[in-house]
């Protein structure tokens, strides 16, 4: 039976191979195209098994270390984009997402720091964590879609080739929808944190809440302007990326310093 380090190597190799195959299909389309779901299914399943092994610790504890949380988020993003790549027009986004999944599994090849958390008997904490993860996944996908919007807009203005790129209006509508869904999830995540967590604005947590609320205000501004008078695709894309960056700093900034920089 494969141990976590060997399983992590297999997952990384599979993700890199799938990314290369899909990139090759996009650059040089042929008559026979392999479906992303068919290609990615083994890697996603092995990734799920490896993450379950790492996430669920003994004694009912969950290991929410930075590598595990990043791996969880990217697994959900990869699964969503793979399953919905037709409706989301996300085929171009799959290779970089799979490469990010490969990078997220590299720490599993060695022993890393742990961050054990118990949610047993704490329904409020479980709800808040679930909403926070889902809202971040949605906004992360929106940021990826924003990059695609920016690329299409740039190609159109430069009269460059649009081979393999979806129509700008379609991707623009999808970005707007993702932002609305993500905004609702982020709002409920903030409310659940304020209601269920006593230390939501406490010592060591206040900066996370403040940065999250700043990201929430930026997202709200984007949606308000877009609903009221419309917003250009490029401006919406830029603000979506900025908001996602602030949200990433809120969720992972201090953890990155504590677990990686300070060891």
UniProtKB/TrEMBL annotation:
<keyword id="KW-0812">Transmembrane</keyword>
<feature type="transmembrane region" description="Helical">
    <location>
        <begin position="237"/>
        <end position="257"/>
    </location>
</feature>
<feature type="transmembrane region" description="Helical">
    <location>
        <begin position="129"/>
        <end position="152"/>
    </location>
</feature>
<feature type="transmembrane region" description="Helical">
    <location>
        <begin position="6"/>
        <end position="23"/>
    </location>
</feature>
<feature type="transmembrane region" description="Helical">
    <location>
        <begin position="209"/>
        <end position="225"/>
    </location>
</feature>
<protein>
    <submittedName>
        <fullName>Cytochrome c biogenesis protein CcsA</fullName>
    </submittedName>
</protein>
<keyword id="KW-1133">Transmembrane helix</keyword>
<keyword id="KW-0472">Membrane</keyword>
<feature type="transmembrane region" description="Helical">
    <location>
        <begin position="64"/>
        <end position="84"/>
    </location>
</feature>
<feature type="transmembrane region" description="Helical">
    <location>
        <begin position="91"/>
        <end position="109"/>
    </location>
</feature>
<dbReference type="InterPro" id="IPR002541">
    <property type="entry name" value="Cyt_c_assembly"/>
</dbReference>
<feature type="transmembrane region" description="Helical">
    <location>
        <begin position="177"/>
        <end position="197"/>
    </location>
</feature>
<dbReference type="Pfam" id="PF01578">
    <property type="entry name" value="Cytochrom_C_asm"/>
</dbReference>
<dbReference type="InterPro" id="IPR052372">
    <property type="entry name" value="YpjD/HemX"/>
</dbReference>
<feature type="transmembrane region" description="Helical">
    <location>
        <begin position="35"/>
        <end position="58"/>
    </location>
</feature>
<feature type="domain" description="Cytochrome c assembly protein">
    <location>
        <begin position="40"/>
        <end position="261"/>
    </location>
</feature>
């Amino acid at each position: 039976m494969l141990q976590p380090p060997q399983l992590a190597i297999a997952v990384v190799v599979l993700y890199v191979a799938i990314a290369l195959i899909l990139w090759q299909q996009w650059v040089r389309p042929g008559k026979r195209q392999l479906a992303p779901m068919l290609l990615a299914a083994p890697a996603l399943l092995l990734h799920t098994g490896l993450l379950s092994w790492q996430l669920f610790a003994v004694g009912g504890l969950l290991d929410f270390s930075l590598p595990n949380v990043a791996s969880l988020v990217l697994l959900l993003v990869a699964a969503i984009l793979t399953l919905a790549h037709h409706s989301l027009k996300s085929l171009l986004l799959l290779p970089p997402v799979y490469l990010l999944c490969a990078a997220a599994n590299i720490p599993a090849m060695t022993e890393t720091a742990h961050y054990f958390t118990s949610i047993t008997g704490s329904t409020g904490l479980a709800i808040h964590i679930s909403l926070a993860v889902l809202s971040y996944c949605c906004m992360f996908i929106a940021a990826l879609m924003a990059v695609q919007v920016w690329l299409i807009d740039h190609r159109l203005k430069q009269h460059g080739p649009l081979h393999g790129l979806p129509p700008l209006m379609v991707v623009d509508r999808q970005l707007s929808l993702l932002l609305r869904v993500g905004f609702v999830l982020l709002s409920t995540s903030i409310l659940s944190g304020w209601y269920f967590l006593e230390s939501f604005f406490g010592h060591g947590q206040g900066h996370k809440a403040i940065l999250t609320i700043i990201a929430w205000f930026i997202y709200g501004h984007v949606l308000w302007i877009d609903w009221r008078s419309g917003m250009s695709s490029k401006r919406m894309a830029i603000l979506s990326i900025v908001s996602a960056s602030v949200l990433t700093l809120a969720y992972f900034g201090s953890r990155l310093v504590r677990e990686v920089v300070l060891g």
